[in-house]
Write a structure and sequence with these properties.
Layout: E1 4-7, H1 11-24, E2 27-32, H2 40-44, E3 47-50, H3 63-73, E4 77-79, H4 89-97, E5 101-102, H5 107-114, H6 116-125, H7 141-151, E6 155-163, E7 166-171, H8 177-192, E8 197-201, E9 207-215, E10 221-233, E11 236-242, H9 249-265, E12 270-279, E13 282-289, H10 296-303, H11 307-315, E14 332-339, E15 341-342, E16 348-349, E17 352-353, E18 356-358, E19 365-369, E20 376-377, E21 384-392, H12 395-408, E22 410-412, H13 418-426, H14 428-431, H15 439-443, E23 464-473, E24 476-485, H16 492-499, E25 516-518, E26 523-528, E27 535-536, E28 541-547, E29 550-555, E30 560-565, E31 572-573, E32 578-582
Parallel strand pairs: 1-2, 1-4, 2-3, 4-5
Antiparallel strand pairs: 3-24, 6-7, 6-8, 9-10, 9-12, 10-11, 11-14, 12-13, 14-21, 15-16, 17-20, 18-22, 19-21, 23-24, 25-32, 26-28, 26-31, 27-30, 28-29, 30-32
The protein binds adenosine-5'-diphosphate.
């Protein structure tokens, strides 16, 4: 069994992995950026090493530095979490070449599933049907029109290398084909560096159902039930549950078996998720995520398995601890991703200090968090504060329990997605399980939402409290306990806090009706998608602003011609700065 695991990640998933390591008697090694010197995952680890840098690219994605820390710490295994390196075949190869265990699938499987076209081919090898579509790159608008005539409209144009809900354009009619293709390819090139696109029939009311699979190095593969992740905004998940409600037993079994066939067709080992779309009694392969998913917790609650433990065992060469016959699903679990986003402002990222955090407790409640009071949600990374998970004997009780838990949840300092999640959980369509992937965006009125940030001022404590202060000796971090006034006035992050502006308001579009496009929040310009003199339509993406690891597309709120571009890639901007003008 592995002895010492380096977690090449941060936030809640790093803490989650460390918790299991601790139970297994495995030493944990954290890595951290300058911003994260005193972050929860660093405080939680047995050892921690500085990577330097602020942005993800400068720190967590600095491969040479991580490799150096692996050698220096003597770690014999690396867990990538999700995001960052989790689907990076080159990194997996580099680790393995060092004789260190990669706690994930073989690099070849990552590559197979890394682009959507080769993933569709892998599914076909496993005899599993994908959403009707093509496996050859689109050559022009005529391909789109021919496809629409054959399969019916709407048609989805998808970037082969797309991901994270980006790189997909929906075309409703032949007239829109040319413009949509051009815009899909331009966006794909800007975001992913490659513009190959293919076509899929766009399903109008599917449910997103995914299957958790697990395989070991000895040829055993099982499915651990399914999850429904149909509550999405911008094709990104907001609430997940297990098992998927109201699924006929034979369909559930067929989907599970199909997922195992896909895994086998690609020589899969370790944890993976096969995503499918389910509509009108039929299911189709969508893609496979070759990592532990954010929403793995709901599967853990209904299977009573620890998936991270299983991952570590498999990476250590052990046989899966369960056979398919032994997998039993008990009760129902729901997860809310609590993101620091302002649901009332179109889910605008809302970084900032967490002044206070009161967590729900009681029967059937689990919290997988990445922050504690006094910590700060940085603009540089993902804005997931943590995941609230409940378990109950059935779906209805789980739904009510989640509402109760959300009532108990209190946070001061950042906005969260909770107001939107409450509306969803209370909605009759969700309660009766008749929602689908576009339901939240098209059927639910979120206009009445109010802000959830609570009090953004700090509360000063009179009493002295024990506080671990980080010191770094030659790049390795040690914690020194000192007695100081209460946390909010004593930590490094609170010093930054007083200098930091309150989360910015404004629309995600960041565009005024007068043609002046301003930054909706502080961040870094990663891409400029247009040129001066170019004509743009309302809704076209103009720039990509990275804030909190999330790339935010800044769109035109009116049609016109681009007059002046005032920023360039790499430039840091503040909320309200003029980025571009349209006339
Ligand atoms: P990504 O890799 O960006 O996550 P996916 O292909 O997994 O993209 O799709 C993400 C979401 O987009 C799905 O959960 C679903 O809501 C929607 N989607 C993708 N393809 C289709 C399709 N052919 N028809 C309808 N919805 C789709």
């Amino acid at each position: 069994m592995l002895q010492k695991i380096l977690i090449a990640n941060r936030g809640e998933i790093a803490v989650r992995v460390m918790r299991t390591c601790r139970e297994m008697g495995i030493t944990t090694v954290a890595v951290y950026s300058d911003v994260d010197r005193d972050a929860l995952h660093v405080r939680f680890a047995d050892e921690a090493y500085a990577l330097g840098g602020q942005t993800a690219a400068e720190s967590y994605l600095n491969q040479d530095k991580i490799i150096e820390v692996i050698q220096r710490s003597g770690a014999d295994g690396v867990h990538p979490g999700y995001g960052f390196y989790s689907e990076n075949a080159d990194f997996a190869r580099a680790i393995t070449a060092m004789g260190v265990a990669w706690i994930g699938p073989p690099p070849e499987a990552i590559e197979d599933m890394g682009d959507k076209i080769s993933a569709r081919k892998a599914a076909a090898r496993g005899d599993v049907a994908s959403v009707p579509g093509t496996t050859d790159p689109v050559t022009g608008p005529a391909d789109v029109i021919a496809f629409g005539e054959q399969y019916g409209w709407p048609v989805a144009i998808k970037a082969a290398y797309g991901g994270g809900g980006r790189g997909m354009k929906v075309v409703d009619s032949p007239e829109e084909a040319a413009a949509a293709l051009e815009s899909a390819q331009r966006e794909a090139l800007a975001y992913f560096g490659r513009d190959e696109a293919y076509l899929e029939k766009y399903l109008t009311h599917p449910r997103h159902i995914e299957i958790q699979v697990f395989a070991d190095q000895h040829g055993n593969a099982v499915y651990l039930g399914d999850r429904d992740c149909s509550v999405q905004r911008r094709h990104q998940k907001l609430i997940e549950e297990a098992p998927a409600g109201d699924l006929p037993d034979e369909i559930r079994r067929a989907m599970g078996e199909a997922a195992v066939q896909v895994a086998k067709a690609t020589g899969y080992v370790n944890a993976g998720t096969v995503e499918m779309l389910y509509q009108d009694g039929e299911f189709f392969f969508l893609e496979m995520n070759t990592r532990l998913q954010v929403e793995h917790c709901v599967t853990e609650m209904v299977t009573q398995l620890d998936l991270v433990r299983e991952q570590i065992r498999v990476a250590s060469g052990e046989v899966l601890s369960i056979t398919q016959d032994e997998v039993t699903l008990t009760g129902h679990s729901i997860e809310c991703r609590i993101n620091a986003e302002n649901a009332a402002k179109g889910f605008l990222p809302s970084p900032g200090p967490i002044n206070a955090l009161h967590l729900p407790a009681g029967p059937g409640v689990r919290w997988d968090g990445g922050y504690e009071p006094g910590d700060e949600v940085s603009q540089y990374y993902d804005n997931l504060v943590g995941k609230l998970i409940v378990w109950a004997p059935d779906r209805e009780q789980a739904r009510v329990r989640m509402l109760r838990a959300l009532d108990e949840f209190a946070i001061d300092g950042v906005h969260t997605t909770i107001p939107a999640q409450r509306i969803v959980l209370e909605h009759p369509d969700f309660a009766s399980n008749t929602h689908s992937t576009r339901w939240l965006e098209t059927q639910v009125d979120l206009s009445g939402l109010t802000s959830s940030a609570g009090d953004t001022s700090t509360t000063e404590g009179e009493d002295l409290v024990a506080r671990e202060v980080p010191v770094e000796v030659d790049g390795r971090r040690f914690g020194v306990k000192v007695w100081l006034p209460d946390a909010p006035v004593a930590t490094a992050s609170s010093a930054k806090r007083s200098a930091k502006p309150k989360p910015a308001g404004g629309s995600t579009g960041g565009s005024g009706g007068d043609g002046t496009i301003t930054a909706p929040m502080q961040g870094t310009i990663v891409k400029v998608l247009v040129e001066a003199g170019q004509t743009v339509a309302e809704g076209d993406s103009l720039l990509v602003l990275e804030a909190m690891k999330m790339e935010n597309s800044i769109n035109a709120e009116r049609a016109g011609t681009v007059k002046e571009i005032k920023v360039e890639p790499g430039q840091t901007v503040s909320a309200g700065d003029t980025l571009l003008t349209i006339e």
